[in-house]
Design a protein that fits this description.
273 residues; 10 helices; alpha/beta; 47% helix; single chain; 2 domains; ProC C-terminal domain-like fold; binds 1,4-dihydronicotinamide adenine dinucleotide; 8-stranded mixed β-sheet; binds (2S)-3,4-dihydro-2H-pyrrole-2-carboxylic acid; Rossmann fold
Length: 273
């Protein structure tokens, strides 16, 4: 739940799809003066500041948290530069894969005396509407106050869960970081199938989208397991049972979803170096 105290000041490095999704929520919740570092222009309300390069960051700006939200494969140069500018920050990475070890090594490359405290977070794009879910892991030595500040930021745009081992962030990435894409794919496929059944495209689109929205909202409100909610829709001998006979074949959704999530987690692991 959003907190009433002002959110920590941040240097947000990379304000693309994920950075911007979080920023939208933070601005609504009242944030200490912050800086967004991105090559592209961002109109920010006062007293926040946009910087195109590290050199544009106001000299007297010391953020509570430096958040890195650039692509994991393209982060090295900016991390090295930041290491020369901010010696001992709380470095909150939302990048898939990049391990604490690799982040620290790169951060210190051009400034061996830099000593960042690294926290990894894996949010998702529903953060843009306050409906995100973020998994977090902090390296040993992170203080309770530093963890609280990271948690407050992510909690202002959804819910948070902490994991006990760093490698579990890869599993979080595969389930909830990438997860919205799986649901959007389902929306696309249901819409297409509705059109195949003769529905006008706009009607098929509305039916698919509102079904996913409604089922998600019902899951959120209900104390019942997802399997129980599924059974409530499935009349014996009825229409849903026929559809589920196909989807629940061991080789159909159970296998496909398991393999897809495993592939995403594997890719996160590959990105870790
Ligand atoms: N898109 C998603 O759903 C999620 C993404 N993430 C993570 O968030 C990170 C960013 O992903 P997206 O937002 O999708 O990428 P994106 O490409 O939309 O955003 C990256 C932003 O960083 C800026 N940028 C890159 N290098 C820069 C530099 N050296 N100086 C200034 N600005 C620079 C780009 O201009 C761009 O606006 C990735 O590491 C990804 O793993 C995490 C969870 C979900
Ligand atoms: O696809 C990706 O690599 C990022 C991480 C989770 C969602 N998007």
């Amino acid at each position: 739940m959003p907190s009433s105290s002002p959110l920590p000041s941040v240097l947000l490095v990379g304000c693309g799809k994920m950075g911007n999704a979080m920023l939208e929520g933070w601005l609504k919740h009242g944030q200490k003066p912050s800086v967004v570092l991105d090559r592209h222009d961002h109109a920010l309300p006062s007293p926040h500041h946009h910087a195109r390069t590290v050199a544009d960051i106001p000299a007297d700006f010391t953020p509570d948290i430096v958040i890195v939200a650039v692509k994991p494969q393209k982060a090295d140069a900016i991390l090295e530069e930041l290491g020369q500018h901010f010696s001992n920050p709380v470095l909150l990475s939302v990048m898939a894969g990049r391990s604490i070890e690799s982040l620290t090594k790169t951060y210190k490359k051009a400034n061996p005396s830099a000593n960042p405290t690294v926290v990894r977070a894996m949010p998702n794009t529903p953060c843009a509407i306050g409906a995100g879910i973020t998994g977090l892991y902090a390296e040993a030595g992170t203080t309770a106050e530093q963890k609280d500040q990271c948690d407050a930021l992510l909690r202002s745009v959804g819910e948070t869960v902490w994991v006990e081992q760093e490698n579990l962030i890869d599993a979080v990435t595969a389930v909830s970081g990438s997860g919205p894409a799986y649901i959007f794919l389902l929306a696309e496929l249901m819409e297409k199938a509705g059109i195949e059944q003769g529905l006008p495209p706009e009607t098929a689109r509305k039916l698919a989208r509102r079904t996913i929205f409604g089922a998600g909202a019902l899951l959120d409100h209900s104390v019942l397991d997802a399997s129980e909610l599924r059974i409530q829709v499935t009349s014996p001998g009825g229409t849903t049972a026929e559809a589920l006979k196909i989807l629940m074949q061991p080789d159909a959704w159970p296998k496909a979803v398991s393999q897809a999530i495993s592939a995403a987690a594997h890719r996160a692991h590959e990105l870790s170096s």
